[in-house]
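hey so u asked for the seq, here:
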Amino acid sequence: MKKLVSALCLLCVFLSGCAHRIADLTVASNRNINLNSGALITGEQVEGDDYIPVVLLPLGVATIENAIDNAVEGDRCIVGLSNIVVEYVRQSFFVGRVGFHVKGNAVYDSNLKGCEHKKI
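ran it, structure tokens below
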């Protein structure tokens, strides 16, 4: 009986947290982008995430859209992301969090007002 309980506890520890790579995208944005402007510049890598708490059941809905919003909100000149990796993260066993983690290269639009300094 002790071996069974020990095995179950060990199994619970190993199953309690993981991340799954669910998408590799070339370009993604939830803003309007003029792809023909010729003023798009790729910048540094940025990250964003959207997590919700779990108490027996998830207490909301995490979305990839919110994760991308959180990644690009740091600079108003960023209009999207390129070379994106989207991961689903689950760190819960009865209590914890679940959500999405997004990382990619920032895409700047130097034609936006106040973003002229982002020229090549």
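Helices lie at 2-15, 64-72. The chain has one domain: 17-118.
lmk if thats what u needed
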